[in-house]
Design brief:
Elements lengths: L3 H35 L4 E14 L4 E15 L2 E20 L2 E11 L10 E12 L5 E12 L4 E14 L10 E14 L2 E18 L2 E12 L6 E13 L1
Parallel strand pairs: 1-11
Antiparallel strand pairs: 1-2, 2-3, 3-4, 4-5, 5-6, 6-7, 7-8, 8-9, 9-10, 10-11
Length: 245
């Protein structure tokens, strides 16, 4: 019995935090929806569905395979549907501590078949990930270094992301329950023949645990690309189906 007030206080705290995240998500979504009306001719909108498969080979080693498609829905001040690219990616993740991991990724982007003036791209990624959970909200800090290799140019990109996810019911995620994910990421791109380029990304997603091995995530992402030179605003409608083997 003496513990009941403490439990009530903790549950009340979780409800407040969850409500705050929901309000933040709604405000975030509203900004995304309004962004086309304030954007200039440099605004582009994409649909980006993805299928991802995770496989836990051992307690320390996990692999991930994914395929995604990026399609224009708003381009050059007009609504249209046109495929931009198809990506195939693989990541090998090695846990080096309870909440730390390193990973190596390889991705190939098919863009030339859809836009003749563009080139296909091979991407190699080195990653470090750190997660911590002081309460029912889980935080993640991710650092990536990428080599983007195309026939005419090699670009080195440095990425840093902060993400948070929280279940909307209780302290842990159960089957049939939703959860929220928020993240922001900063990017620096360097190439020998170009000036440095800076990007910033903001994303908000809601996910559902459909069963013990399947999750569905849908959300919005807003990107400020090349904002130190010629700002381009990009809006994504994302969806991801995640299978865990």
């Amino acid at each position: 019995m003496p513990k009941e007030p403490s439990l009530r206080l903790e549950n009340h705290y979780h409800q407040i935090m969850t409500t705050s995240y929901i309000k933040f998500g709604l405000i975030f979504c509203a900004l995304f929806i309004l962004s086309p009306s304030i954007a200039q001719s440099d605004f582009t909108g994409y649909l980006q569905p993805q299928i991802s498969v995770n496989h836990k080979v051992s307690p320390l080693y996990t692999t991930n395979f994914s395929v995604s498609n990026r399609t224009y829905f708003y381009k050059e001040d007009a609504l249209q549907l046109q495929t931009r690219q198809v990506d195939f990616a693989h990541f090998s993740d090695l846990k080096i501590a309870t909440n730390k991991s390193i990973a190596l990724g390889v991705q190939y982007r098919f863009r030339a078949p859809f836009e003749k003036e563009k080139e296909n791209e091979l991407r190699i990624t080195e990653q470090y990930n750190y997660k911590f959970k002081p309460n029912n909200i889980r935080y993640g800090l991710r650092t990536r270094i990428e080599q983007r290799i195309s026939p005419s140019l090699t670009t080195h990109r440095f990425r840093g992301r902060l993400a948070a996810d929280v279940p909307l019911k209780g302290e842990k995620l159960d089957i049939g329950e939703p959860y929220l994910i928020f993240s922001t990421e900063s990017l620096l791109s360097l190439a020998r023949t170009k000036k440095p380029s800076y990007d910033q990304r903001f994303s908000s997603q809601i996910g559902y645990k459909l069963n013990s091995n399947t999750k569905l995530q849908v959300g919005l992402e807003y990107r400020l690309e090349d904002y130190n030179k010629q700002l381009a605003q990009v809006f994504f409608l994302n969806s991801t189906l995640v299978f865990t083997l």
